[in-house]
Structures
1.
Amino acid sequence: MADRETPGTFPPNLDLTVPSVARMYDYVLQGKDNFEVDRKAIDAMLVELPEIFQFCHDNRRFLARAVEYVAGRGIDQFLDLGAGLPTVDNTHQVAQRARPGARVVYVDNDPIVLAHGRAILAENPDTTVITADLRDTDAVLDHPDTTRLLDLDRPVCVMLVSLLHCIPDADDPFGIVRRLMDRLPSGSAVIFSHIVSDDPEAGEWLTQRVLAAGTEWGRVRSPEEVAATAEGLDLVSPSTDDGGTPILVDCATWRVPGTTPLARPADPEQRMWEHAGVAVKP
Ligand SMILES: C[S@@+](CC[C@H](N)C(=O)[O-])C[C@H]1O[C@@H](n2cnc3c(N)ncnc32)[C@H](O)[C@@H]1O
């Protein structure tokens, strides 16, 4: 990383004075594609909110379980929005293990994701990465690389994993989901998780910390607010035996064999978690 920390060397025009969500998340996941500015921002937050570390790792495991589950239902096309930097068990690896030939389009608005993703995916003809902003849903769906790899007349799995809290209210995060799903056929699915808190003060604390770091972000929302993601869709049961009420749960407990799905972490001290679910378009 040493040469990458020299401004202007990798990739060009990278502003090393402002942390990026993609690189901060990479640091929490113990990746190597982050800079001093990202590490400092996260280290300061971890002191006061150590559960960040846990819920980021839980979220990544949720992503893999959910992709495997959706592939098992027969979906072989994935649009991974806000995909982040490559890590272990990326969407294409999980999806193609479960369903060889599955196609994956990774989308992120941080160009560093493109820089890393292109190199990793160079030899995988069924996968690509594009730089786009998910708020422009038509630009994402009509991007030539999206339409080259995905047949939008067949079910697609849209992934909004640990993403919608990056979108401010003014940009109507849940309206984005509706616009995307409106253009996709019945049987399409959405995999999502969102940082939530049932302690408004704690939620506001994290929101202000991330915004103060200088990065563009939305906010921590309440579990009730995040339920809007699945509006008009059929939520899948979070239980591996398909029983119980289909509800959104702490991502750490979504379809984990032998684990009861929980609407919030059992530890009352844990004030924040990734609220998660999978829903299907009827
Ligand atoms: C917390 S990371 C989540 C990465 C991955 N989805 C996961 O759950 O492991 C959020 C990602 O969303 C990207 N992102 C934020 N706002 C976005 C936007 N408006 N359009 C596209 N990507 C965005 C960030 O650059 C970052 O890589």
Note: The chain has one domain: 21-280.
2.
Amino acid sequence: MSSPDIDPPRLYSAREPIFPKAVSGPFRRLKWIIMGLTLAIYYITPWLRWDRGPAMPDQAVLVDLANRRFFFFWIEIWPHEFYFVAGLLVMAGLGLFLFTSALGRVWCGYACPQTVWTDLYVHVERWIEGDRNAQIRLWRSKWDARKVRLRLTKWAIWLVIAVLTGGAWVFYFTDAPTLLGNLLIGQAHPVAYMTIAVMTATTFIFGGFMREQICIYACPWPRIQGAMMDEDTLTVAYREWRGEPRGKILKGEATKSDIPPGEKGDCIDCFACVNVCPMGIDIRDGQQLECITCALCIDACDEIMDRIGKPRGLIDYMALKDETAERIGNEGSSLWRHVPRPRTLLYFGLWSLIGVGLVVALFMRSPFDLNVTPVRNPLFVTLSDGAIRNTYELRLRNKQGGEMPFTLSVADGKGLVLSIEGAESDTVVVPADSTATLRVYLTAPAGSPMAQTGTSDIELLVSDQAGIESSIDTVFHGRD
Ligand code: SF4
Ligand code: SF4
């Protein structure tokens, strides 16, 4: 039985809004650069053009779902080449493992779309409502004309960003200028409008209202990445041995970074690191799942250290191994010496291996493909003059931007006569970027060795105008 004086544990607490304070410094500048680059890549890419020939789409990056193709500048991936996409996805995963094991949550802190768009929304908020203190005052104030005006302005700009974000997404799946025209006159496919609506809503809600909650509760990555990190992983941490005991430092009072060491630590308990944190946490409490290692607390604390004349780095990027060494008075090693280690080298090796394999496969692939299926019902027919004829279904895929004549033949002739249904010669023209299905006949004259042999292995050859040749093995059935 519980005592009436003891409060039951709280299983739920409402979200405390976070008002991150503006900060400047090298990590903030790095975040600006990455934000600018990633947003520019996202919004501009669908508008880049790439000439592939008259019959081909001229959008540089296009996921052409209707024709089941993926275009990336000069590369065109067909459905049967999906292993390229699979390889790139595996590389992206391994790249993430590599960066996480070497540099902790750099993806979360700098490049994750949730981080980038939230950062953008936070800046709009700051621009409209002012910095942290002004935002807190506005949040606590009653709803009046000013508050309504500021909120509506902020939400309107957030909404414009959200619509642009959703709009940019659909441009990756069809010709962007055509789709934009159709969207504006209400003639686009309903799926395009629905996709934009969903992307707009998620951007607006995730970036505007759910921010850190997405990272903490919805994203599985913070839980998974723990398996990739160890005590050599570089992460943002507080030098507790140097900062504690924290407290205001009176004029002339010695601290631990002075020589000789004094009583107090270097942390003056100013909360600058907490106030700038977009996740609303205190890094001085140790490693936390919520920390996305954006390093803004480093910028904030370094600024304070400069002001009070103490060495920078009270909060710093460091390996936990070094933190432990420093705590007992030893020197930590150079940051970059933690990066090459068996785990990171293994990830890098696998990543490079797949990358090299994909590049080699890309440069070795033929500009056309073929596959052949012998018609088995019947295996062969005997013509009126006693010749034996086999029939084949040949699929010839022209992967080039212009129509191309292809010549078919049998390797070493083998005494077989080749003809193509509907064609007057052994050459067919296949339109640009398409597949032709051909019915091909091979005939062995009566009495020839091939006509009298049961089953013979043969090789069908296809060559294009440039002399590039491709072959495929099949069989010829003669009379037993
Ligand atoms: S910014 Fe630095 S000095 Fe201020 S509270 Fe944080 S750790 Fe302490
Ligand atoms: S504790 Fe520091 S590094 Fe971690 S999320 Fe907050 S500001 Fe970023």
Note: The chain has a mean pLDDT of 90.
3.
Amino acid sequence: MPEEPAEPTDRSAVRSLLRLWPYVRPVRARWIGAALVAILASCLALVIPLVLKWMVDGPVADRDPGGVWLGAVYLLLLGIAEALLFGLRRWLVARPLAGVEASMRADLYRHLQRLPVAFHDRWPSGQLLSRGTTDLMLLRMFLAFPLTFLLVNGTTILVGFVILFAQEWSLGLVLLAPALPLMILCSLFETKYSLVARRAQDQVGDLTTVVEESVLGIRIVKGFGRHRSQALAFRALARRLRATELGKARLLAGIWALITAIPELAIGAALVLGTIEVADGNLSAGTLVAFLSTALALRWPVESIGFLLAMSQESATAADRYFEVMDAAEEPEPEAAGEAAREGDRGILLDGVEFRYPDADPGSPPVLAGIDLHIRPGETLALVGATGSGKTTLTALLPRLHDLTGGRILLDGEDIAAMERPRLRELVSVAFEEPTLFSASVGENVLMGAEGASAQQLRRALSVAQADFVHDLPQGVDTQVGEQGLSLSGGQRQRLALARAVVGEPRFLVLDDPLSALDVHTEALVEAALRRVLEGTTALVVAHRPSTVMLADRVALLSGGRISAVGTHQELLRTDAEYAWLMSGDRGAGALVPEEGSTR
Ligand SMILES: Nc1ncnc2c1ncn2[C@@H]1O[C@H](COP(=O)(O)OP(=O)(O)O)[C@@H](O)[C@H]1O
Ligand SMILES: [Mg+2]
């Protein structure tokens, strides 16, 4: 859980829930209409005791059957009207509130796409998933139910008490007596309940993360026989959530018992006192009947306050969780967008580049420090370094997936920090080590690299990446792949990722070990094709094998967070022991690369 729940002292449920207003605004007319209808329906129920009073003091006292029948018809009509009005309320709010939920979800999704990579590094995906699903559902239910009924029941209680006092003010006071202690109890309850509710929601997020990881990693779980330990971990989390939910239920049961019992006692006291008054002749029997049945009609509105408050607290914490994500800053756009002065050489220039991950230990040395590199226009530079030396990190800096913590990067003399992101990402194309395919057709996956590229460009990119196997798939380039489609082998996915990187014919190409999952024969083919692509672009290619390094004009060795040597492959082999060691070790490893592994 990235952020601890805020202390109850510095958060207010009302303030959290008020933030929903922009989403509710468009449907406010309907919502208010529905609330008014519900208030009307609820107050109709309070007319019933008045009809009873009329019946008891009138037709019943006079022994007039016709009058009693008329009274019964009135009561029936009142009941039907109440039911119809509540139905109308539901019809009024159901559709608009589903719209509110959908637009909040759309906003969350849009925002998640724009948050920096650093944010996603920090937040477990299950936490984001649960916020986009269960929390939003809770908020829709809050708008439909607790919010309306807090208003409706509050008004009903108010109107009810006016009627009670009008009937017999002394008995009214007896009923009002428990109000103050109940209010104090409710506010104590709310504070406690909001803490537990928040904890439960966060634990649902943790649980979601575990489920997601074990589904995505099902091959590893099975391959290593980890079912048991995964199941144990899951069970521990589920048990923790269960304990929290039970705690919630206990709190709710406690407040519910008090809210039910205390008014019940007050009604009992009013009954005794009222009967004495009727016996003394100070009160008509009809008035006492009306008084008591009004008090009984108010029982449900009063009792419901407890769980309506509980649901509101839960919704407030759900709103907090939603807005925690929405408040995270999106990638800032550069201030002087598009007006950066060109200076220096063309090609890619890294000037004193320093980078430290935002979540890294402040005392630790930066991953990259003082990197100076110049890749000339049209040149291909291979980046070589031991595992963990920061090669992937460096490639992520060029399309600004992370922002530099020091130095600058110039593309054709233009500082990337001053470029608008869409333009930067059009100029620079990347293929990552982990080729990700989305649930879409092969063609759509490749064309993600360049919006609006032609069918011819697509064919060319596929051929360059030696991905012609797609033409043999069941529906060719229209075959669905990814989670919801056909599983492709690691090598196939890597070739599609490569096609995606080159389809837009980018000026600058960044490839993070693009050939790692290819078998030797395919690798030779892809290399031959890549050679053609690389001729036309300025490229930075992370490489592990001598054969990939051979594609490059020069090689840079990344070691200890710095560029420790630059030169041709032959030069470095001769002069740099670490380089020679890396390249020789690779030959053994190369033979171990699995041929067309069967992972997605
Ligand atoms: N998202 C991240 N947050 C914090 N540290 C990271 C992150 N990604 C990588 N690192 C650290 O940065 C260093 C360089 O990693 P990486 O660039 O992936 O190396 P390479 O690609 O050369 O194997 C490693 O020590 C790694 O632990
Ligand atoms: Mg790497």
Note: Residues 1-9, 586-600 have pLDDT under 50 and may be disordered.
4.
Amino acid sequence: MLRFLVGSAYLWRDGRELTLIDAGTVDCAAEIEEALDGELRRIVLTHWHEDHTGSAAELAARHGAEVVAHVLDAPVIRGEVAGAPPVLEEFEVAIRAGIPPLPAAPPCRVDREVGDGDVLEFGGGAVVVAAPGHTDGSIALHLPGPKVLFTGDAVANVGRTMMGVFNTDRGRAVKSLHRLAELEVETALFGHGDPIIHGAAAALRQAAASTML
Ligand SMILES: [Zn+2]
Ligand SMILES: [Zn+2]
């Protein structure tokens, strides 16, 4: 786990082969590279937001890594279109006001566009789970073997396990949270907040149960 000022990224190791899940803000490349102890084979971006894609272009260029993102967020990551802004809930307005604006992410190539059910070749087969709502092309990654779930910003664990904030479509985000809560998960790794190493499914189910449409 790489913990940044805003958000987190994760390195998964299969022998000498590394997969980076998310890439922090623009200033995170050096810190990520310091953690590389193998060959950076691919970078999976859970969604287009600048705190997840900021250093992706720099790392992809330097390491020749394959960049993977959902088909709906890929054009935003490439800088071809602007991403839809979040529709803030009342309680989110104050949170948002307290966060300094992040520098925009430089456009990044996307080599592989994925959708729900696609399987990526790391962690014994990482299943792409479409989790729209935070952004249209938000994804989670479910590794059924080790029972690991990378949630991106579909779920957060800041203080408690909850639906991520700053969503473009709350209704769809709620449905995505409920779907993720049904997966067989031991370890959950969030875009923001502390990881849950053991028994994560219970926390996800509780978050879903307390979050209704
Ligand atoms: Zn986000
Ligand atoms: Zn985020």
Note: DSSP finds seven helices and 13 strands in the chain.
